[in-house]
Every structure is written in structure tokens, then in C-alpha cells.
Amino acid sequence: MTLRVHLAAIALAAAGFSSTADAETIRVAIGTQDTTINTATGGLLIRELKLLEKYLPHDGKYQGVDYDIQWKNFTSGAPITNEQIAGKLDFGVMADFPGSFNGLAHINAGRRSHFITPLSGSVGGSGNGIVVPVDSEIQSLGELKGKTISVPFASTSHGMLLRAVKAEGWDAERDVKIITQAPEVAGAALKANRIEAHADFVPFAELFPWRGIARKIYDGSQAKTPTFHGALVDADYAKKYPEVVVAYLRAAIEADQLIAKESEKYSELIAEVSGVEAEVDYLFHGPLGLQTRDLTWKPEYRQAVATAIETLKSLKKADRSLDVDSFIDERFIRAAFKASGLDYEAALKNYAQLPLDAKDAATGETIADGKRVAQLWVAGEPLVRSYASPELALSVFKGVEAEGKTVRVFYAQDRESGIKLLGAQAWFVRTDGGAVDAFLLKDRAEAWAKAHGGNVLDFDAVKASIVASN
Q1: What are the tens digits of pLDDT across the range 402-417?
Q2: For residues 78 and 101, is the Cβ–Cβ distance under 8 A?
Q3: What is the pLDDT of residues 447-470, one digit of tens each?
Q4: Taking a C-beta distance cutoff of 8 angstroms, is the pair 149, 178 a contact?
Q5: 294: Cβ–Cβ under 8 A, 6 or more apart, which residues?
Q6: What keywords would UniProt list here (predicted)?
Q7: Where in the chain are the domains?
């Protein structure tokens, strides 16, 4: 038995598993969501880099076993659940909301599924968002009263929208009109101004603005409700082949480690496969990203599942409850961490974004404070340039263009929430002293300017102001 398989066997035994692989061919059928890019470490990257094959057991009771690895790609979680119920998939990746529905659907079918790991998420709620057509005068959620908002029904963004509406003190049935619309339909509707607003999950609240067809006016972090995407497995399959489940999770762990080390490289790979531009992929997966890749069951993610179940019941999408503690099965990811030589308890306590380990591209000094970091990704350069402040990055912007180069994207961190922003979609405050701070929302920029002094500027205006002062 190889050391790797031996360690996995020890970890499984410690977790209380025992099993026998009695089939010559074991199917490993995984439902992915390639365009839902924060699931990449549980699907796309494992598939494209053939990481699962590295960890599937071939020794001991698995000696002589062949594996039939099947990958099926979907645009949302609901059809993955349908395929699992039909016995066509063993694993599936999806968000907290459809994942909870997955658990309920299995029970209704006389079966069970287990939520085995988060993959990426935000304890603050970032990832879901609301956008409006690019020429809309609407700047905030509060201006949507009486308007029509589309959303993929029974998605994690649907739950966010309902909570946001409730936080405004509105009645979801009287004060707004909520209609169902898939993201691929919503994109065309936004472009043609056929809808007044659209709520969606990763990556569409960033992708639509990046493609110039919408503006983001609300981030899920404003609802302060945790959200995540993760992986589920059929309970009978997990009982029969626990080592295979751990192998899948070890592959996810390696995918996570790889993209943490080379975020630009793997963002380009995700773009090549999914069609979601690398600039948006890096927004999520790069240092200080919009979400945090996290494979541990933090209390906030457990609460997200519980909240999703209650919301499904309130929507009359479910007529029963689901015990969260039995639905979430932490044993497999703990075994995978142990077999990979990692400390699960330490990771469980770590809430930090992927840190930025970089020197300022202009000064050469180590960037110690990520609150005002700004970044440029220059065409033809494999790595993103990092700067200690937006004003410094903007001052370099002109020089890059003067050299005949193209800046692919400008990133900044929201001064208050810390979430990563696409600079072209942000609002900025430039003080009389020349400091620049970035904000997602215009009203937050205005409040900051009132409190600290300065002018509120859009991206083009703040660039021009930096050029004029140099």
C-alpha cells in the first residue's frame, strides 16, 4: 500500500468509516458548474488538471478496481440535483440554497445526500449581487421599490434578494415584482433594457458589468448573510466508497493550493474553459479576492444552510425541514485534511482572505496593508501588478498607456467593506491631499466624502484628476 493511500485509510478509520469495494468498476460521476467560477476547485480545475486520478485508491480493497470518471457540466444547481435523484450523478457542486434543496429532494425521494465541504464563499455575503442596465439612473437598492427584479428562482441569489427586500421593510409580493429569469436570459434583457434590475449568483453580478451591459448597485455583503458554494455526495455512495469521497476532496484541496500560488495562471485556464473572462476569475480567486476559498465548515456556513432551508419553506418550495447537523457531514473533509497533512482546526479558525504577498510595483516596498491596495493587469504580462494605494496605481496607469500597452483591468478594494472591485465600475473619493479611496456604491462614496472631505468621482474622472495633478 502506498504511503498516500495508507494515510487516507488511517484518516478514514479514525473518522469511523469502514467499507468494501466489491465492484470491478466504480463510477465517479461529478456534476459541475463551470461558469459558476467559485466552484472551480471542486470541478473545473480537478477535471482539467486530472487531479482526481492522483488520489483515487488502487491498493488494499481497491486493488484491481477500474474507475469510470464522468464529468457533466451544468449552468445551475437544480439540474444537478435532478441527475443525482435519477442516479446519474454521485457528486454535485452548488450553492447553499440549491444545496439545501438537494438535501430535501433526496429525502422526498426516499434517499439522502450529504453536504461534504464548502469550496468558496463569504461569511459576509459577497458573491451574490444586484445589477441594473448600464444606462439606468438607479444607484441603490432603495430606488427599486415598485420595480421589476428578475432572479433565478430557488438560487442562492433569490434568498439574498428576499432578505434584502425584507431589510428595506418592503413586502416581497406588493412592493416589488420578482420574476424568474436565468442568467443567460437576463444578460440579453439587461442589454435591451427589458428589465429594471437583476439579482444573480457568482459570477454574474460582476460579469455583466465587466461586459458593459450592467452596473452593480448591491453586493450580498450588504445583507450580512453568509453564502457559499460547496460539494455534495449521495449518502449511499459515500457509505460504500468513503475512500473515493476523500480522494475527491484531496483533489479539491490540491486545486485550492495551486490557484492560491498561481492565481493568474489558473484564472486564465478557467477563462479558457468556462468562457468567463480571466479578469473576472481573478477578481474571485486572486489575493484579497471577492470571496474566500474555504474548505472548512465554519459556523456561518452551517447557518447559511439552515437559513436556506427556512427560506425554501417560506417560499413553499419545501414542506419539511432538514436536520443540518446530519445533512452536513464533516468527517470526509476532516479525513482529507489529515491525509493531506493539513490542520483542519487551524483552517477552521482562519477567516482571512487569500493574503497578498507582494511588493509595490512602483516603490519595491513590501505591501503591509491590504485596505487600500490597487492592482493593474497589463496585457502581455503574466502577473498582476500590485500597488499600496489607488492613487499610486492610477499614476502608473498613464505611463503604461504611454508605452503603448493596454491595461486589461484595474482592481481596487472597497474602503469600507474590503471587497475587491472592478475599478471601472467603482466610485472614488479624492481628498484635497490627493489620497484616493474606492467604493462600490455612490452613496457610500458621498458619505465618505462628507465625513473626510474630497470629491466623488467615477473611474474616468479620477483617472483624469490624477493625470492633471502630475
Answers
A1: 999 999 999 999 999 9
A2: yes
A3: 999 999 999 999 999 999 997 777
A4: yes
A5: 118, 119, 120, 121, 228, 301, 347
A6: Plasmid, Signal
A7: 3-121+226-349, 129-223, 370-469
Find residue 3's DSSP bridge partners. Answer: none
Assign domain 129-223 one CATH number from 3.90.76.10, 3.40.50.300, 3.30.70.1450, 3.40.190.10: 3.40.190.10
Give the Å distances, CA to CA, from 6 to 109, 140, 239, 412. 36, 55, 19, 46
Show the cell assigned to 160: 439574498
Give bridge partners of residue 72 from the DSSP assignment. Answer: 31
CATH of domain 3-121+226-349: 3.40.190.10
pLDDT band at 7 (very low <50, low <70, confident <90, very high): low
Q: Using H for helix, E for strand and C for coil, what is the string for 41-91?
A: HHCHHHHHCCCHHHHCCCCHHHCCCEEEEEEEECCCCHHHHHHHHCCCCCE
Q: How confident is the model at residue 1 (pLDDT cuts 50, 70, 90)?
A: very low
pTM above 0.85, yes or no: yes
Amino acid (one-letter) located at 269: L
Which residues, 6 or more positions from 329, have their beta carbon under 8 angstroms from its beta carbon? 114, 115, 116, 238
Q: Which residues pair with 115 in a beta bridge?
A: 232, 328
Owner of C-alpha cell 477552521: 348
Q: Which three cell numbers stand for residue 27?
A: 463510477
Cell 480545475 belongs to residue:
45
Residue 89 φ/ψ, nearest 5 degrees? -135, 150
CB–CB of 190/129 below 8 Å?
no
**d(C-alpha 335, C-alpha 387), whole Å:** 40
pLDDT band at 17 (very low <50, low <70, confident <90, very high): low
